[in-house]
Design goal:
CATH architecture of the largest domain: 3-Layer(aba) Sandwich
Protein name: TAXI family TRAP transporter solute-binding subunit
Largest sheet: 10 strands, mixed
Order of helices and strands: HEHEHEEEHEHEHEHEHEHHHH
Oligomer: single chain
Pfam families: NMT1_3
Distance between the termini: 35 Å
CATH topology of the largest domain: D-Maltodextrin-Binding Protein, domain 2
InterPro entries: TRAP_TAXI
CATH superfamily of the largest domain: Periplasmic binding protein-like II
Helix content: 25-40%
Organism: Micromonospora endolithica
Shape: globular
Number of strands: 10
CATH class of the largest domain: Alpha Beta
Radius of gyration: 21 Å
Length: 323
């Protein structure tokens, strides 16, 4: 777990109204907090389940943790490196993390989701990348037949989306050999010729793909024809999005995308999550400096979190903000 440094000073305390709100929060969260000095209180721990150190989730999580540490009194926020979406949902649901990021397609349909896991916001869309070498034989999904492809780390959203796409293409394990590698290992395997291509689902730009494209001629395979087959099997999850030439300096393509959510433990106090939501929305420019995908949120789009309900604290902030 990477520990994010914590800073606090009088000049960057929240305004009086927020401070009063947080005083109530600390009484609710910490037994015996009333009447105690700030220095005597146990800190409120917020662990943010992210993903690979080079993925968007991690950059977003680190920036969010730094903001929470700076802006909220007596909070200690840190990030947890994980295999991403599916593991993040499990960690939040089990109480091993307080916040986490996940793709929508990892979640079961409405009514079947874990009641312990609810949403703070829809944060941005993940775009599925199928990356190969520019001079290689893989130009379409069908070209993966008889070849080695990384479908993402076990328990990741990439693995779920890539597996669904390969199943829709009728490329089972016998027809396309699937490696289960995380982003960094997938990039290394493509460089070294141990795989012919790899999938990764992330917000634009994916830094590891950006760096790979600077070092090695690559091709991003067009996946636009696969949005509808995936939607037929998983209604209301997938949409088509473009990856323009400006992102990686390669030919533009259309691909499959699905929403990302910031999820939270349902039992966390409403006052705390209202403040987390406020900072998530009010510090979008700072979050966007950590990664452009993190700066694309808006209160209006953030409330679209189906199949997950919003945490009451998040819902209260959005109602007050009238997105």
């Amino acid at each position: 777990m990477h520990r994010v440094s914590r800073t606090w000073s009088a000049r960057n305390r929240p305004p009086a109204a927020s401070t009063a709100l947080l005083a109530l929060l600390l009484v609710a969260v910490l037994p015996g907090a009333a009447g105690c000095r700030e220095t005597d209180e146990e800190p409120v721990r917020i662990r943010i389940a992210t993903g690979s150190p080079t993925a968007v989730y991690h950059a977003f999580g680190r920036s969010l943790a730094a903001i929470l540490n700076r802006e909220l009194p007596n909070v200690e926020a840190s990030v947890v490196v994980t295999a991403a979406s599916a593991e993040n949902v499990r960690l939040v649901g089990s109480g091993a993390a307080e916040l986490g990021f996940t793709q929508a397609d990892v979640l079961p349909p409405a009514g079947a989701t874990d009641p312990a896991v609810v949403a703070v916001a829809r944060v941005y869309d993940d775009l599925l990348h199928l990356v190969t070498t520019a001079g290689g034989p893989v130009r379409t999904v069908a070209d993966l037949a008889g070849r080695r492809v990384s479908v993402g780390a076990p328990g990741s959203g990439t693995e779920i989306t890539a597996t669904r796409l390969l199943d829709a293409a009728r490329l089972d394990e016998k027809r396309a050999h699937r490696e289960h590698l995380g982003l960094d290992d997938s990039v290394a395997a493509l460089r070294e010729g141990r795989v012919d291509a790899f999938f990764f689902s992330g917000g634009l730009p994916v830094r590891a793909v950006e760096e790979l494209a600077r070092d090695l001629p690559v091709r991003i395979v067009d996946l636009g024809d696969w949005t509808e087959p995936l939607r037929e099997r998983n209604p209301e999850v997938y949409v088509s999005r473009d990856i323009p030439r400006s992102v990686y300096g390669v030919d533009p393509v259309t691909t499959v995308a699905n929403p990302n959510f910031l999820v939270v433990r349902a039992d966390l106090p409403e006052t705390l999550i209202r403040e987390v939501t406020r900072l998530l929305m009010e510090r979008r420019a700072e979050l966007g400096a950590a990664h452009p995908a993190a700066g694309r949120m808006s209160p209006r789009s953030a409330i679209a979190t189906a199949p997950l309900p919003l945490h009451p604290g998040a819902a209260a902030w959005y109602r007050a903000a009238k997105p």
